[in-house]
Amino acid sequence: MKKLIQSIYEAIGETPLLNLSGIVEHFGVEGRIYAKLEYLNPGYSKKDRPALQMILEAEESGELLPGQPVIELTSGNTGTGLAIVCRAKGHPFTAVMSEGNSMERARMMRALGADVVLVPQCPGSVKGQVSGEDLALVEQRTEELTRELGAFRADQFKLDASYRAHLLHTGEEMWEQSGGEIDVFLDIVGSGGTFEGCAEALKAHNPDIRCYVVEPENAAVYAGEPLRDGGRHSVQGCGYAMDLPKVKRENIDGLVQVSDEESIEMTRALARLEGCFVGISSGANVAAAVKLLRGAERGKTIVLTLNDSGLKYLSTGVFN
Q1: Active-site residue 281, yes or no?
Q2: Does the reported pTM lie above 0.85?
Q3: Are residue 143 and residue 170 in the same domain, yes or no?
């Protein structure tokens, strides 16, 4: 149990690990799924961890000066984490986000004191389905604002701190909480920091642990598949159909693809069967785990993260 804390960012991390026995029983698979409840962080997502790590390391190195503005592109989760940490540490924060992401995220960041800049999607894009092309527009606007504001860029795609948060903390917590009883780790990749950090941490304890990258069926670039429907899909914050600089291919032991329908069905099942009110990427992770327990990893123990809260998806229709 944590002692009395003096700032909200001290509440980040040390989330519980839950045995999803109800999911395993309902879907009739053999094995175990252990889920790290990352949506219980104060910003309701796993992205609180890299947000804190990036700011701490930048302050320590002198790259981020006292009171200097901070900026980052976000689907909403990293931005929420940065809003919390920056407010506590005295840095004005600007989040740059595609209009295709759910509006709950923008409202939450603004409530936490962030300046939120919304970037229109590409012509033909679908609201709720942010593509790599949409993300490129957000990147362009972020670069412009970084120069205008003289801001520190908390770049979750490039800074080592974005995966070191999971290398030093999330992965180690998984190992300790499971008693080392882990055969498989998997993650649907957004920036790739969770996959790389946890994979490195777990393989350092046991090189035989197999690590899988999960991708939406429409944007399975690591699997070498052509983009379907322009790479559009409903798993917000993930599957941008791009090569991720923080993911080392030597740590990828396998690949799993999931459809929007499978991800949404499992998101609803997690709420109904386990009491875990989470977002679509969490459903995608668990759907991938069930696929593996039906096939290549039958009878094994899989560990994964439940990435963010379902409260961020109320406007998307997932829970209608």
Answers
A1: yes
A2: yes
A3: no
